[in-house]
Write a structure and sequence with these properties.
Layout lengths: L1 E6 L10 E8 L6 E6 L7 H18 L6 E5 L4 H4 L2 E2 L2 E2 L19 H8 L7 H17 L6 H13 L4 E8 L1 E2 L2 E4 L1 H13 L4 E4 L10 H14 L8 E9 L5 H17 L18 E3 L3 E5 L4 E5 L6 E2 L4 E6 L6 E5 L4 E6 L4 E2 L4 E6 L13
GO molecular function: hydrolase activity, acting on ester bonds; metal ion binding
Protein name: Succinylglutamate desuccinylase / Aspartoacylase family protein
Keywords: Hydrolase, Metal-binding, Zinc
């Protein structure tokens, strides 16, 4: 195992943060897999799972069982780790700018397309090498000026040439679920099965430039432009490892074992064969068919349905009660589907997201991500 530290731009005098990456295996001798956790800094189930994974990979590497390269970044957001206000961890947004830590990643597509256009041949594997060099060149050309952007550049530099990118998050209160693109989904099915993911939501265009689609969608767009001479160079996925309170040894052991099984499936781990899996058990939904349910005004939140519950059209999901005016808002699902996440808060603000239901009927378009 090699431990590398990547310094970020120092925002003020007397401070210095780094991103720590742990490298297993041998670069260039097989597939490259990149795994990170807690990009939203207050989402910790993935951080614990990454630590468990790191311990096991250290032992497996000593046994000569790694065929390829694995990079693990258990703390992807040291900036957000230091954002605490009155005993509350604020890890989703940078407090200086309000930017979501999982939005606004550098879009390399136009730059890469221009760089490779006159270099491509009829050999897809050679083209893969050319494109990966161009991706790295494009990322390195990004002139960053802030700590936030230097963090984004560091993370993108670590994974721009990866075959597989895994970004581990969690929701507020939730069942295990997955976000991916149609481009990447087929390769992610085994991982979703081993994680026992209850909802799997797909979209190629979400808006917002999140981390997980910063590279697989570049490959997809290059394929759309240049055709079949462009291979599938990168697949990516966001894992939502239940809720923020789901930090336990039993849970993290299961998540780490799912990741190990996936690495065996990819033949990057060769200690034994991967376990069998059944893709027929997966519930898959287009991201446009996910209904966000919001509070119309501020008040007390009373949750009336459990995460993991299959809800019907019109079913009561929550109530918001104004104890001054006696007004009661009943928040109901418009369409049937799986209630896969809900708020942890019991005080609503006007317009606050209360729950998500994954159905089968598209109910929205355009920008598809949560704030």
């Amino acid at each position: 195992m090699k431990h590398q530290q990547h310094p970020l731009i120092s925002p003020v005098l007397g401070t210095r943060r780094v991103i720590d990456s742990f490298h297993f295996g041998t670069p260039g001798c097989g597939r490259k897999i990149y795994i990170q956790a807690s990009l939203h800094a207050d989402e910790l189930p993935g951080m614990l799972a990454a630590w468990k994974l790191k311990q096991q990979l250290h032992e497996l590497e000593a046994q000569g069982c790694i065929q390829g390269e694995i990079i693990v970044v258990p703390v992807a957001n040291p900036v957000g780790q230091n954002q605490h206000l009155m005993d509350v961890h604020l890890g989703r947004y940078e407090t200086e700018t309000g930017q979501n830590f999982n939005r606004g990643y550098y879009d390399t597509y136009a730059q890469v397309a221009d760089l490779v256009e006159n270099q491509l041949s009829d050999d897809p594997q050679e083209n893969k090498k050319i494109i990966r060099l161009a991706l790295r060149q494009a990322i390195q050309s990004w002139q960053v000026e802030t700590e936030m952007h230097s963090m984004q550049k560091t993370l993108q530099s670590l994974c721009c040439d990866a075959d597989v990118i895994i970004d581990m998050h969690c929701d507020f209160e939730a069942v295990q679920h997955v976000y991916s693109t149609y481009y990447s989904w087929e390769s992610m099915i085994p991982l979703a099965c081993w994680l026992d993911s209850k909802a799997n939501m797909l979209a190629d265009e979400t808006g917002g430039n999140p981390f997980d689609s910063a590279f697989d969608m570049v490959w997809q767009r290059l394929h759309a432009r240049f055709g079949d001479i462009i291979p599938k160079g990168c697949q990516s996925v966001t894992l939502e490892l239940c809720g923020q309170a789901d930090v336990s040894h039993n849970k993290s052991n299961q998540d780490a074992e799912a990741l190990l099984n996936y690495l065996r499936h990819l033949e990057v781990l060769i200690d034994r064969a991967a376990d069998e899996y059944d893709p027929q058990t997966l519930y898959v939904s287009d991201l446009t068919a996910v209904e966000p349910l919001k509070s119309p005004f501020g008040g007390v939140v009373v949750l009336c349905a459990e995460v993991g519950e299959q809800v019907t059209a019109g079913q009561l999901i929550a109530e918001v009660i104004d104890p001054v005016t006696d007004e009661v808002a009943q928040i109901r699902a418009t369409h049937p589907g799986l209630l896969f996440s809900r708020t942890m808060r019991r005080t609503a603000t006007a317009g606050m997201l209360v729950a998500h239901v994954a159905g089968e009927i598209p109910v929205r378009s355009g920008y598809l991500l949560a704030p």
